[in-house]
Each structure stands twice: as structure tokens, then as C-alpha cells.
Amino acid sequence: MTVCGGAGSAAEALAMLEQFLPEVAIVDISLEGGSGLELVKDIKAIRPNVRTIVLSMHDELQYAERAMRAGAMGYIMKREATDKVLTAVRTVLAGAPFFSNAVNSMLAQRLVLGAGDQGGAMATLSDRELEVFQLLGRGQTTRQIAEHMHVGFKTVHAYCARIKEKLNFDSLNELVFHAIRRHEQKEPH
Known about the structure:
Layout: H1 10-20, E1 24-28, E2 30-31, E3 34-35, H2 36-46, E4 51-56, H3 60-70, E5 74-77, H4 82-93, H5 101-113, H6 127-137, H7 142-149, H8 153-167, H9 172-186
Parallel strand pairs: 1-4, 4-5
Antiparallel strand pairs: 2-3
């Protein structure tokens, strides 16, 4: 295996994708100025033969399925050892998906038992709504989120309104409170 490059942003990654034509792309779900899930979708659209693996610190049971729907063939937690990352790369190069035992078990359970819970109300959020929720949890203002996502201020407010509706919150303050609380619970200490 040869590492052909590393990118700091989605735009840089897409440019490098065209330049180096890799077989596998390892994508961080949290990118500066963008979403890793959106990058996975872009890679799939531009270079459908490139296999993607999402590398993340986020809850795999919530994000692995989103990564798969975006087109990723693998999902691995950042805390995993390097040899596990290499195993993931070899597995997707062989044409098979790579997910943790917990994710495989969850998916098998859904197939055997039916759709089930699907992650509760959080699962109803679109990828962009989930990204807004996460950024609110990190303490970003709606203006900062708009800049980060390269969308208008009103668009972020529309996302917030849909999130409030889907998660049954009465106010933006309640939404922000729960986003911060969830973020603090998910962060490794």
C-alpha cells in the first residue's frame, strides 16, 4: 500500500482525488469547513470506483449507517489501533464492507427482527440537520455554523426549526441545551 496524499478540506480532497486516482479514500467525518458524509457522497458521484472508509470519533451505531447510505464501504473509530485501519483498507480493497462487530450485530438484528428503533428521534434527522445539531453542541453560533457549512444564515435557522420539530423541542434554547448535553456525553474525557 502507498499513501498518495492527505487533504485538510473537502475541496482539497476532491482535487487530490482527481490528481492521484486512489483506490481507497479514508475520510474523517468531521472536516474543517464541511461534512465527511457529504465528501463521501461527492467521491461516490465523481469516482464511483474509489472505496471510502469513514474514520470517526462519533458514535458508530448512529453514524455508520449514515456513512453506508452516503456510499462508504467501511466505518472505523479513531480510537482503533493502526492494524485495524489496515485491515479495513485491505477488506474494502477486496470488495467487502468493513464495520465493527457492534455495527454488524446491529445491522443483522435489523434484518432478522425488522426495522426496530433505528436510533430513535435522532435517526430522523438528515445528515445536514445532524451536522447542525453537532455544531450547536460544540458551542458554535448559528452564524458560525452558516460559515462552516457554506450556507446562508436563514438556511441554518431552517435546519434548527426542523430539528426542533423532529426532536420535539419548544425553543432554540432547549435545542442548544440538549445539543451541548449530548456533545458533553459523547466526548471522551
